[in-house]
Amino acid sequence: MNERRATAAGADATEATSVRLECAGLSGGHGATVVFRDLDLDVHAGTVLALLGPNGAGKSTLLLTLAGLLPARAGRATVDGVTLRSGNAVAASRAGVVLVPDDRSLFATLTVEENLEVARSRGGPAPRDLLDIFPALDKRWGLAAGALSGGEQQMLAMARALIQRPRVLLVDEMSMGLAPLVVETLFDTVRTIARDHGAAVVLVEQHVRLALDVADEAAVLDRGSIVLRGTADELRSDSRTLERAYLGELEVAR
Amino acid sequence: MDHVASLLLGLGSGGVFAALALALVITYRASGVVNFATGALALYVAYTYAGLRRGELLVPVPGLPKTVDLGRELAFAPAVALSLVIAAVLGALLYLLVFRPLRAAPPLARAVASLGVLVVIQGVLAIRQGTNTVSVRPIFPVDRWELGEVIVLSDRFYLALTVVVLAVVLSAGFRYTRFGLLTRATAESQTGAFVSGVSPDRIALVNWMISAMVAGIAGILIAPVNPLTPVTYTLFVVPALAAAVVGRFQSIVTIVAAGIAIGMLQAEALSLASDVSWMPQTGAAELVPLIVILVALVLVGGGMPVRGGLTRQRLGYAPRPRSLLLPMIAGSVVGLLALALTAGTWRAAVISTFIAAVIGLSLVVVTGYAGQVSLAQLALAGTAAFTLSMLTEDWGVPFPFAPLLAALVSTAIGVVVGLPALRTRGLTLGVVTLALAYAIEAVWFRNSDIVPSSGARVTPPSMFGIDLGIGSGQEFPRIEFGLVCLVTLVAVALGVAALRRSTLGSAMLAVRANERSAAAAGVNVVRVKVLSFALASFIAGLGGGLLAYRRGVVTFDSFTAIGGLALLSTAYLAGITSVWGGISAGIIASTGIMFIALDRWVDLGEWFQVITGVLLIVTLIVNPEGIAAAGHQLADRWARWRSSRSAGGAGVERRAVAAVAPTAAAPAAVAPVDGAAALRIDHLTVRYGGVVAVNDVTLRIDGGTIVGLIGPNGAGKTSVIDAVSGFAEARGSVELGGRRIDTLAPHARVRAGLARTFQSLELYGDLSVEENVSVAASGRRHTDRRAAVARALDNVGISGLRDRPAGALSQGERQLVSIARACVADPAVLLLDEPAAGLDSDESAWLGERIRTIRSAGAAMLLVDHDVNLVLNVCEHVYVLDFGEVIAEGPPDAIRADRAVAEAYLGTMHESEVATA
Which of A31, A173, A104 is nearest to B312 (CA)? Predict the structure, then answer.
C-alpha cells in the first residue's frame, strides 16, 4: 500500500506536474434538468481522481458531458489548456478524452478483435498489443463481444479506450456487477495506465475502498456539487464523513 | 413446367426489388432512415442514364435548360459511370441537407421526410421529362434459352445475376474492409462509435452515397426491361420494403433472396391468375409482398432492430383538451361561416377540408394516441367508399344507415389490418400497413370485376325527403351536403377529444409511451391496440363514405397507397397527436382549402407538387415533431402561468415533514393471517445470457409488513423485482397470498394484486398526474375509478399536483406519482424499486412516513433502495443481496451490526485499515 503511494508521489514529482484536465464553472444535465452545477475540478497528468458519491449525484452525467456526449450548460472544460467544444464527441475524442461508459457500449455482435480495430488509430498500437495488458482476452479473440463474461467485457471496454492512447481517461462504474477479484485486476490496470502513459484518469466508482486504494485524489459529489475534496489518504482516514455522504446514518460496526 | 417458366420470368423484377432492398437496408443501418424515396432515386438515375445514352445530361434545376447536349451519345460504360457519380452526389446531398439535420428527430419524422424527397424527385421528373414512357436500349443480350421445355429470357437471368454479384461484393465490403467494420460498429452502437473516436456522421454520409448508387444500379438495370414512367418505379419500394422486413433490415443474404423470391412469386401469381378461375384477376402480384411479410412475421417475428442512439425518441406531446364545449362551438361557427360565405370551387374546397380532417382524425387516434404507425387509413376509407356504393346502389340502404354500415365494414377490415401490430411496432408496422394498402388497392379498388372502369356510383344521401347530396351543375356544391360533413367532423372531433380524456385514451398513450410499463400498470396492451385500430378505422370509414358522396362516383385514385403515404405525412406535419392537429391536417391536405388557395392566388403551375415536397422537408427540419408542437408548448406555458398565479405554487404537500422524525424502532410487524405469506419467493434464479443476476433467492413478505431489500449496485435487486412482476424470465416459484403467479403475464399479475414501480419511473410525460395514476385503474367503473385515483393521490400526498403534466414535475414529485400509480389498484403487495432515488434527505424521511401510511392501508411491501437509512428505518425485516445471493437477513438492528453488509457496500477493508478506522 505504502509502496504504491510512494510511486504515485514520485510520478507527481517528475512528469505529472501539469494540469491535464480542468473544469471551470461547469454545469450540465439531461434535457431540461440540470444535474450538476458550477463545478470546478482539476486532474493532473499521470494521476487518478476517484469521483465518489451516492446514486443520482451527477457523476455519470459529468463524464458524459466531458466526453462531449451531452452539451454543457455553462462553464468550460479544458485539456492541456485547450477548451473542449461543448457537446462535440468527435472533438473531445481528438483532444484525447476517452470514456469507458457504465454500460460499456461495446459492439456486441463484433468480435473482440473487431471492437479494438474500430477504435484503432493510424500509428497507434495494434489490437494485439493490448494483450500485454489484458492477456485474458487472448482466448476470446475471435468471439463476439456479447458472448463475453461481464469481467471480460469490461476488460475489452478498457482495452478499446487504451488503444486510442487517451490523454484523459474517464471510467464510469467499472466494478458494477463484477466479482471482486476481477475488479482488483482492473483497478491495477487503471493505476498502470496513469503511471506509464501519463493519462489523467477520472474514476467514477461505487466501490469506495477500492477506488480510494487506486486513486491519488478523490472528490465526493452529492446532488450535483462537490461536497468533499482531498487526497485519497485524507478521505480514507476521514471515513466517517465519507460514510455519511454515502450511506446516510448507517452505523457501520467497528 | 409452366410454373418454372413463369417463376423464372420474375427474375428480372425480383433482382430489382433485391437491389432496392439492399439500398434501403444500407441507409437504415447507417442512419436509421427508412427511405421511402429509394425507388424514386432509382428512377432519377435511370432517367439520367437514358439521357446520357441519347447524348443529353438531365438538369433538374428549374430555370435552366432541361438538358445539356453532350454532343454525342455516350457508350454503356461511361454512361453508367457518370450516372452512378450523379447518384452518389444525390445521396450525399440528401444526407447532408435532409437527413443529417434530422438525425435526432423521431424515426417517423425521418420516414416522413423521405416521403417529401419522394414527392420532390417524382415531381421534378414529371416536369422535366414528362409522363411519357422512355425506352432504353437493352444492356444484356436478349436471347431465349430453351432448357428442355422451359424458356428463360437471358436478359432477366443476367439482371438477377448482376444483383447477386452486387450483393456479394457489398457483403464482402461490409465484412472485410475497415469502412465496413466501422459501418457495422456504428449500426450497433452510436455511443460505442463516439467513445471509440469514430464519427457516425461521416460513416452515414458515405453509406448514403453507396445506397444511392445501389438504387441507381437497380434503376439502370430495369430501365430496358420496364419502360420508364415516374409512378411505377416509385412503387417498387413496396416489394423492396417487404424484402427488407423479411431480412429484418439486417441480413443481406436473406434480403436479396426475399427480393428475388417476391419478383418470381409475382410473375407466378400473374400466370396463375390467368389460368385459375378462383384467383383474383387483378392484384394477385400486389398481394405477394403482403403475404411474404405476413409469413415472415409469423415465422420469425420481431421488427427491425432498434439502432443504438443517444436520444430517446418520442412522437410528440399529446395535450389533454382542457374543455370540449367552447372549442366545439367556436369550431362549428367557423365551419358554418366558411360554408355560408363561399360558393363554387371554394365551397367544394371547404367541404373537402372537412372530409380530409375526418380522415386525419383517424390517424390521430391510431398513430397519435396509440403510437401505431398506420399507412392504411386512406385505404380503409376507400373500403367504406366502395362498400357504400354497393349498399346504396345494389341494396338501396337509406342514408344514415348506409355510411354507418360502410364504416363498420372498414372497422372489421381495420381490426384485421391491426393484427400485425400485435407482433411488431413502429416503422415495421408502417411497412406492413403500406403493403396492405397496396394490396387492397390492387385487389379491390382497381379490380375491374368489382369496380366498373367508369367508377362505382353512389346514390346521393337524403333523409325525410330532404336532399343532402352535393348536387351537380349549377347547384354544386350544395350547402346541405357541407352541413352533413361539418356535423360529422364536429362529432368525430368531439369523440376524439373525449377519447383523449377517457381511461381508454390514457391507456393508449401509456401503450404508446412504453408497452412494458403500461402492462405493469395493468393495461391489456393487446386489447388497447386492437381497439385503437377499430376506432380509427371506423372514423376513416366515415370519412371515406363522405368522400364517396362528395364524388358521386368512386374511383381508385382517391384511395391509393401513395395517397396514404401523403396523408400520414400531412397529418404528421400538422400535428398527429391532437384533435387540432387532425383538423389542421384537413386544412393543409392536398384537397384542402389551403392548397386550393395557394393554387388560385400564387400561380405555381406545374411546380406545385415539388414546392409542397420541399416545404414538407423544411418544415420537418425546423419542427421535427410537427407544427402543432410549437403551439402546444405555447398553450402549456400559458396554462402553467395561470395555474401558478391561482394556486400559489402547488407542490408536494410537505405538511407531514415537520411532524415526522425518522423513528428509530419500526412498528411491530402485523402478524400474518394463518401463516400464509402475502408474497413468497422460492429459489428464484434469473439469468441474462451467461450472467447469473439472481441466484437461488428465497424470501417472504408477511401481510401488512414492509420488507427491505438492499445491496450494492449490480447486486440483482431490480432483477428480483423484474422476475416477480413478470418482466424477466426466471426459475423458481412466486406465490401471492398462497397462489402461484409465476406463469401469469405482467398485467395479469397486477390484477391478481401485485403492483410495482420502476427505477426509471416510466411515467407518461404527456399525461397529467391524475391520468398517469388513472391508467392503472382502467377496467373499473367511472366513479370507482375517480375515487380510487383521488384516494391514491391523497395517500401519497400529491393531490395538489393532480392536473400538472408528469413531464413537468421534479424528480421527487415524479417518484411519488409512480408510487401513487402502483397504489391505485389497491394491491396486496407493492414492489417499490428505488423510490428515494433523486430525493433529498428531508423528502426521503417524508417518503418513509408515506410508505408506512400505505402499509396501514393494507398493502405489504418490498422496498428496494440505495438509501440504506430509509430502508433500515422503515422496514421490519431486511434482506441484503450481493452478487445475486442473499448474504444477510434479519431485523434492521441486526443488519446495522452486520460486518458483511458494510463490506458489501464499501468494499473489503484491508486488515490494517479496519484496525485504524
Answer: A31
pLDDT of residue B672: 37
Nearest-Cα distance to chain B for A247, in Å, is 6
pLDDT in tens, B492-517: 999 999 998 888 888 888 888 777 77
Segments in B141-283 forming alpha helices (H): 154-176, 178-188, 190-195, 200-222, 230-235, 237-246, 252-275
- Whether this model's ipTM surpasses 0.90 comes out as no
The interface residues of chain A toward chain B in range 158-217, judged by CB-CB distance below 8 A, are 160-161, 164, 173, 176-180, 206-210
The distance in angstroms from the start CA to the end CA of chain A is 21
Helix (H) or strand (E) holding A184: helix A180-197
**Residue B638: partners with Cβ closer than 8 Å, 6 or more residues away:** none
Helix spans in B602-740 (H): 608-622, 627-647, 655-659, 717-725
Question: Phi first, then psi: what are they for B754, rounded to 5°?
Answer: -120, 115
- pTM over 0.95, yes/no: no
3-state SS, B243-300, equals HHHHCCCCCHHHHHHHHHHHHHHHHHHHHHHHHCCCCCCCCHHHHHHHHHHHHHHHHH
Cell numbers for A219, please give them. Answer: 472528490
Question: Cα B781 to chain center, whole Å?
Answer: 30
Which whole-number Å values give the CA distances from B266 to B1, B239, B282, in the listed order?
Answer: 17, 10, 12
What is the interface size between A and B, counted as CB pairs within 8 Å? 141
> What CA–CA distance (Å, rounded) separates B105 from B623?
9
| DSSP 8-state class, residue B909 | P
For B867, which residue in chain A has the nearest alpha carbon?
A247
Residues paired with B159 in a beta bridge = none
Asked if A90 is an interface residue toward chain B (Cβ–Cβ < 8 A), one would say yes
Q: Is B880 helix (H, G, I), strand (E, B) or coil?
A: strand
Helices B178-188 and B200-222 cross at an angle (nearest 10°) of: 110
Q: What are phi and psi of A169, to 5 degrees?
A: -110, 125
Instruction: For B497, list phi and psi in degrees, rounded to 5.
Output: -65, -40
Tell me which residues of chain A, numbers 116 to 155, contact chain B at a CB-CB cutoff of 8 Å.
117-119, 121, 146-147, 149-150
Substitution target from A90, A130, A168 for chain B, most B beta carbons within 10 A: A90
Instruction: Looking at B776-840, list the stretches that DSSP marks H as alpha helix, in order from N- to C-terminal side.
Output: 782-796, 811-823
Contact B188 A109 (CB under 8 A): yes
Are B672 and B702 in contact, with CB atoms under 8 Å apart? yes
- For residue B694, give the H/E element and its range: strand B691-701
Whether the pLDDT of residue B715 is over 50: the answer is yes
Where is B463: in which H helix or E strand?
strand B462-463
